[in-house]
Amino acid sequence: MLNNTGVIQDEVLSQRLGLIPIKADPREFSWKDADEDPTDQNTIVFKLNIGCRFNPGASSSETDPKKKYINSSVYSSHLKWDPKGDQAERFSDSPIKPVHDDILIAKLRPGQEISCELHCQKGIGRDHAKFSPVATASYRLLPKIIITGDISGDDAYKFQKCFPEGVVDVISENGKMVPKVVNPRKDTVSREVLRHSEFDGKVKLERVRDHFIFNIESTGAISPPELLHMAIEILASKCQTLKQSISSLLVKK
Amino acid sequence: MSEENTEMQLESPETLVEKIRILPGASHDLSSATFEIKEEDHTLGNALRYAVMRNPQVDFCGYSIPHPSEELMNIRIQTADAGLNAVEALDKGLDDILLICQSALKNFQSELEKKDYEIVDF
């Protein structure tokens, strides 16, 4: 932090800067020990130099700070990557930048400025969640909707409306309009259908016990399919490590 | 395993020796034993517990993390069968997880290659 005259204190500003996801493949970098000097292999440098001033073009009665001042809001797009060593060449295909350009970092007023240098290093989620390439990861079981009774006519359309769009279709069968479950995966399991007395005993909501739907949301650094691949490999390598150490126990016996 | 993964584990050969030990109180024939595993948590603990329990020769398997600020995971295995002791059951459990990993990865890769998915921009 070279200069910070804004109202956000240095340590709070640093914390906010630290949480900005960076679009850079961590596999291209090496780990940095605390006592190690930064190199182009283990550190990415960003610069943030921004000052706020009055907008000469704004009318005197203007109250919107965005129009009245220039740079009243500091966004992640104001971070400028400063390539070190051969980084500019190595990442010429995908220049390193924040994943999102519209993350609000701070607000400034005329005369205030921020000038700092940011060093990004590689870490793991166990140390701090900001290092994790995964935003959310969750799983659920595939819902199963079983129609056990006779639902037809207007009730069929009412039945369809109890589920999100695309879950239930209404088809014509023997001259009657009947509901048909087409995509249970889209169901949110709202159980709305159970609130209506006309469907009492005519529908069963179950789950397919051995069908898991995994949802992975990435922060943008690594794509979700790659994350799944890496996660499985990490679990496998944990098993391999343990197997190796067990071999000594097996021999002892 | 590729170099990348061993790097991600941050494990050196010296720590491997001390990675696991059998806690006092195990039966003489090792048909029941509690293992103390260092630097592991629910990630491996729960998966391993599940895999070992799937083995019909195993009577009981449970795991716990005795204290959240100690990086230790305990796993207890009791076998029903004289032909299989707790260490072998643990080894079998690890092998099973590895097989699950392999098949999951293989199926995932082949499904991905079919390109039978849609990409939605948010």
Automatic annotation (TrEMBL), chain A:
Matching SMART domains: RPOLD (SM00662)
GO biological process: DNA-templated transcription
InterPro entries assigned to the protein according to its UniProt record, in alphabetical order: DNA-dir_RNA_pol_insert, DNA-dir_RNA_pol_RpoA/D/Rpb3, RBP11-like, RNAPI/III_AC40, RNApol_insert_sf, Rpo3/RPB3_RNA_Pol_subunit
Keywords: DNA-directed RNA polymerase, Nucleus, Transcription
Tagged with keyword Nucleotide-binding: no
GO cellular component, one term: RNA polymerase III complex
Top-level taxonomic group: Eukaryota
Localization per Swiss-Prot or TrEMBL: Nucleus
GO molecular function: DNA-directed RNA polymerase activity; protein dimerization activity
Residues in DNA-directed RNA polymerase RpoA/D/Rpb3-type domain copies: 1-245
Nucleus listed as a keyword: yes
Family from the record: Belongs to the archaeal Rpo3/eukaryotic RPB3 RNA polymerase subunit family.
Full protein name: DNA-directed RNA polymerases I and III subunit RPAC1
Higher taxonomy: Eukaryota, Fungi, Fungi incertae sedis, Zoopagomycota, Kickxellomycotina
TrEMBL record, chain B:
Protein's GO biological process: transcription by RNA polymerase III; transcription elongation by RNA polymerase I
Pfam families recorded: RNA_pol_L_2
Upper taxonomic lineage: Eukaryota, Fungi, Fungi incertae sedis, Zoopagomycota, Kickxellomycotina
Protein name per Swiss-Prot or TrEMBL: DNA-directed RNA polymerases I and III subunit RPAC2
Entry superkingdom: Eukaryota
Family annotation (InterPro entries): RBP11-like, RBP11-like_dimer, RNA_pol_Rpb11_13-16kDa_CS, RNAP_AC19, Rpo11-like
Organism: Smittium mucronatum
Entry similarity comment: Belongs to the archaeal Rpo11/eukaryotic RPB11/RPC19 RNA polymerase subunit family.
Keyword terms: DNA-directed RNA polymerase, Nucleus, Transcription
PANTHER family, A to Z: DNA-DIRECTED RNA POLYMERASE I,II,III, DNA-DIRECTED RNA POLYMERASES I AND III SUBUNIT RPAC2
CDD domains according to UniProt: RNAP_I_III_AC19
Gene Ontology molecular function: any one: DNA binding
Listed GO CC annotations: nuclear DNA-directed RNA polymerase complex; RNA polymerase I complex; RNA polymerase III complex
